[in-house]
Each structure stands twice: as C-alpha cells, then as structure tokens.
Here is the input.
Amino acid sequence: MSGLNELYQELILDHNKNPRNFKKIENADKLVEGYNPLCGDHYTIYLNMDGDLIKDIGFQGAGCAISKASASMMTTAVKGVTKKEAEELFTKFHALVTRDVHDNNEANIEELGCLGALAGVAEFPARIKCASLAWHALHGALNSEDKAVVSTEDSKMD
Here is the structure.
C-alpha cells in the first residue's frame, strides 16, 4: 500500500504545482467564491454551462496544497459532465473525505479514480475543509444564482 500512497502523494503535489484549469473564464455563466476563514484558502470557481452540461470550468485563488490540488482534480473530473453527474461526484467525494477512516472501503476509493488520492484527508479532520472547499463552491455554483459566496464555516458544509 505504501507504493500507492507515494503515487497519490505525487499526484497531489503535481496538481498543486501544475493546477489544471487554473484560469478565469471571461463571461462565465456562474461564478462562486469559496472561502475558508480559518486558514485563508480562497477560490473562485467559474462555470460555462451548455444546458445541463459543464462545458468549461476554471478556478483562481490561493490556498494550501490540498485545497489547490483538490480544486484542480475537481475541474478535470467534472469538465464535460452533466450537472447531475457532477452532483453525484460531489456526494461521493464528500463521503470519501468525511468517512470513518476505520471503515476502509477500497471500492469507493477506486470508483473515484484519481480523486481517490485525497482519501487520506479523512485521517486529518482539520484538512477536510481544505479538500472540500472547491467542491462546495462547485455545488453552490450548480445550485444557486451567480456570484454566491460559500464559506467552510457555513453549517451546510459539514
């Protein structure tokens, strides 16, 4: 398992150093800010939709390696999928990072592909909000009006 953990660490570091879709989308259909006031992580998620399809997604901002890698991985996972598919992925990812670490369900980790690299976050409760910040911003973008703000201290994020 340590070889897999090393691969996951490399994947997280790569997405942090070379974030995918790290861009502002001019004239985005949806724009939502995600903010963690406890540590200062702050990202803006930009979406261009084609009906229910996520045509393009980008993000900008700053935060720790976990939050940036998670945002990058999220954008690659949801680009080109429907709103429903993105919401299902959000639910699965949230369950992964908030799971009981003693209930090591490998099937769920494998089902999420490269997002499974963030499964270890569940062992560090203080980092769960880092990993889920961009995901909650995406969820807000898909389910609210433009220019919403999502905070990790909202009770809906637990």
About this structure: The beta strands are 30-35, 42-50, 53-62, 148-151.
